[in-house]
Design goal:
Elements lengths: L4 H13 L3 E3 H9 L6 H10 L3 E5 L11 E5 L24 H5 L22 H7 L7 H11 L34 H4 L17 H9 L4 H23 L9 H5 L8 H4 L18 E6 L4 E3 L3 H9 L18 E2 L2 E7 L16 E6 L5 E3 L14 H10 L4 E6 L2 E6 L4 E4 L4 E9 L4 H7 L2
Antiparallel strand pairs: 1-3, 2-3, 4-5, 4-7, 6-7, 8-9, 8-13, 10-11, 11-12, 12-13
Helix pairs in contact: 1-2, 6-9
Length: 443
């Protein structure tokens, strides 16, 4: 969904600023004010992107775009072991729970909280970036977490919703540690509306209890909406199979998976079958399409070993892969890989470490940043070029070596001397990782 990333971010911000959910048609009108996007494409984004869940506003209604509610969704959670100081390198956020509640007492005084209040920390920011939530406003992020993380909100009292009387069948009455609220209101199907004898908001007893548990006033006021969204998210799983609209075949085909899931290799992908990335046990995957779809190539490790050496233009075997045209016997070949190492912190393992080379004077290949046979070193290294390449893969970059300067063109993969108008080939190849090395890094 990378081509729609700005639309997804904007739609998420709109939802969070509207208590976490919104009528589909209203959301579309808001998004359309900034982005010229067709309703078909917008529907496609909502259906395909895991950031959004759709539920029917009225289950008995016929299919119609105005009958859906869109709810903001995330798989991110607060780490339960963080406050016990018993967590190292997990995939959950390390944040003070009361900071998320908006009511950390240490955040208001001189004494500093011993738990993080920094969503941009070295641990948290990569997780937010991976979920493309790093640009979301702090308040919007917290609302998103509250309605998606079941551990953050107290339960609605089921006994309160039984029997008669002020407290229903709840024997704890005003001392109950659960929230007294109409269950049908939470499920958005209370037929009594404002005349209902059950609460549709948090009363004084509930407010005091929630404040004692550390919830801030803004969160307490938003609780009715949050509970409704929690219910909608649970209902969306069963609704998902029934919600279907025609989507153009061309759009479906454009969403082919081409990145290998890092978490699956490390055996901890929380999305499982719903993951939008490729699940494979290596950080690279070679495939050929001979007319019946993509299938794995045999001898994948040896093909990868050959490809990682910049001098090679062909792979091994009697029917070698042509690395220049990415074909084998005329059939298209592709290499899938994990995300570039430049986009992740250094402690992330099994990312793809790309190296950049230029052709030397003796048909040898020299990595950028390494000395040539005359001990001259370029002004940029592989990591610099990789970062610039990921920013703009059609850019031209100035490189200095000694008292000469060159232009590296990412588009045609040449290094050009502007004074003499001579060119050298440039190649971007990954650092080789064997199967045994992969296994040793995930133990």
């Amino acid at each position: 969904m990378s081509s729609y990333s700005r639309v997804i971010h904007h739609a998420t911000s709109i939802l969070c600023s509207h208590k976490g959910s919104m009528d589909l048609s209203q959301l579309y009108r808001k998004v359309y004010q900034r982005f010229d996007i067709s309703d078909e494409h917008f529907w496609y984004i909502l259906k395909k992107c895991p950031r959004f869940a759709m539920v029917r506003n009225r289950p008995s209604a016929e299919k119609d775009v105005t009958d859906f509610i869109v709810v903001a969704k995330t798989s991110l959670r607060l780490c339960k072991s963080y406050t016990k100081q018993d967590c190292f390198g997990c995939q959950d956020l390390h944040l003070c729970k009361y900071f998320v509640y908006g009511n950390c007492r240490y955040g208001k005084g001189r004494k500093e909280c011993k738990f993080s209040h920094n969503i941009q920390s070295e641990h948290n920011f990569p997780l937010l970036r991976e979920c493309t939530l790093h640009e979301l406003h702090e308040d919007d992020l917290f609302l998103l977490l509250l309605q998606n993380d079941p551990a953050l909100l107290p339960e609605v009292c089921s006994h309160y919703n039984k029997g008669s009387g002020l407290f229903g069948a709840c024997t704890f009455k005003e001392n109950c540690t659960k929230v007294h609220m109409c269950q049908h209101f939470v499920q958005d199907n209370c037929i009594f509306g404002p005349k209902c004898k059950r609460l549709h908001c948090v009363d004084e007893y509930g407010r005091r209890m929630l404040e004692e548990r550390g919830l801030g006033m803004d969160v307490i006021q938003d609780l009715p909406y949050l509970y409704q969204n929690v219910y909608r998210l649970s209902a969306s799983a069963t609704d998902a199979e029934r919600i279907s609209e025609p989507v153009s075949r061309s759009l479906e085909l454009s969403e082919e998976k081409n990145e290998i899931c890092l978490h699956f290799i490390r055996r901890n992908c929380r999305f499982q079958e719903q993951c939008k990335l490729v699940h494979f046990n290596l950080p690279y995957k070679w495939e050929v399409n001979e007319g019946n779809g993509w299938r794995d190539l045999q001898g994948m490790e040896e093909i990868e070993r050959a490809f990682c050496d910049p001098k090679n233009t062909f792979g091994p075997g009697s029917r070698p892969v042509d690395f220049q045209t990415m074909t084998r016997s005329g059939h298209p070949v592709r290499r899938l890989s994990t995300v570039s190492s430049i986009t992740k912190p250094s402690h992330y393992v099994l990312t793809t470490h790309w190296l950049w080379y230029y052709k030397g004077d003796h048909d040898n290949w020299i990595e950028y940043g390494r000395p040539d046979d005359k001990h001259r070193v370029t002004s940029v290294k592989s990591c610099d070029l990789e970062e610039m390449f990921l920013t703009d893969n059609k850019a031209k970059v100035t490189v200095l070596k000694g008292n000469r300067h060159y232009y590296v063109s990412f588009e045609d993969m040449y290094q050009r001397n502007p004074k003499h108008n001579t060119k050298r080939k440039v190649r971007r190849r990954p650092c080789f990782v064997s199967i045994s090395e992969v296994e040793s890094q995930i133990v």
